[in-house]
User: What shape does this take?
Amino acid sequence: MTLVGQPAPDFTLPASTGEQITLSSYRDQQHVVLVFYPLDFSPVCSMQLPEYSGRQDDFADAGAVVLGVNRDSVHAHKAWAAEYGIEVPLLADMKLDVAREYGVAIDDRGISGRAVFLIDRSGVVRYEHVEETTGAYTVRPEAVLAKLREL
Assistant: This one.
């Protein structure tokens, strides 16, 4: 099942930045890159999220904000962000409700899969990539930036 071409499921989640972030609040203002990842402090995620965070100026230049999402708590997000220099908001989807809406929850493991969704300013999913395994990380920031430039 793909969400491409569909309105992105809306949500409000607590963020590492100390605020509640609502997806629809970006509508008509910015594109959103949603990066679902399994766990804070895990090897692949500790490479992926710092890479996306390090390119946030490029994403901003392309009119987009990057949001990381997983089931860890805001407290874990804050500690991990501080240790790895991650500056993008990390959202706490502790019950995996948002991951389920996006079709990326791995309920038997209590985590979300690794996936990237590009949502345009009108709130429609324009690109999605779900990795085959949680250990795979094939969609780098450059690829998502290229998709953004096509919008």
